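Okay, is this right?
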Amino acid sequence: MKYSVQHLLLALGALVLIPTAGAAGDPEAGADKVSMCAACHGSDGNSPAPSFPKIADLGEPYLLKQLRDIQAWDQAEGDAKASTGRAVPQMTGMLRNLSDQDLQDIAAYYDEQTLQLTGASELQVQVNSGEKVDALALGEKIYRAGDIETGVPACAACHGPAGGGNEPAGYPRLGGQYPEYIASQLRAFRAGDRTNDGEQMTMRLSAKHLSDAEIEAVANYIGGLTDN
């Protein structure tokens, strides 16, 4: 059973990145540049499968930063790849020859699209004690308040009470995203496989002490958040 989860006072994040200067794209021009994106992410930014993230309405600064980071990684050579941008092997070659204006236009176009709500599911997760608990209740706790004992910050502090993000600050919308994708990115940040969260390592530190059960629970909860 899937349904929308909506709350008003929650408190940091899941895909946090740093605000990007120079986001001055033309969405109308971008509409003519996204044909290569549509196969995986959908023409309107709502991907058909959870293996690819929904990119509609994530915030233009955030989208532009991701595009620039992925392009930088793709253009890097040799050992430099390990410490450059954001590694997304599935996008190898796709952005390599685009201008920065192209990236700005694509980001502007997808930011103007409407994200379709995925929804949250009723399920249980097994915590470290071996006890099985309600995933929605645990996910809400992590999203709203974090975990003081383990040093996990609350997601809502950066991503907003209803998961709408903070576009000027570069924090993306999370609400309605595929839970599978949210979980994969939290695991990547926790493992240090994704590192484009800035020198302060905001997301790596946020995810560092999340257990597998907590990641599954908060990702599921996020899938049902909506600010509509």
In short: The longest strand covers residues 124-126. Residues 74 and 93 are 7 Å apart (CA to CA).
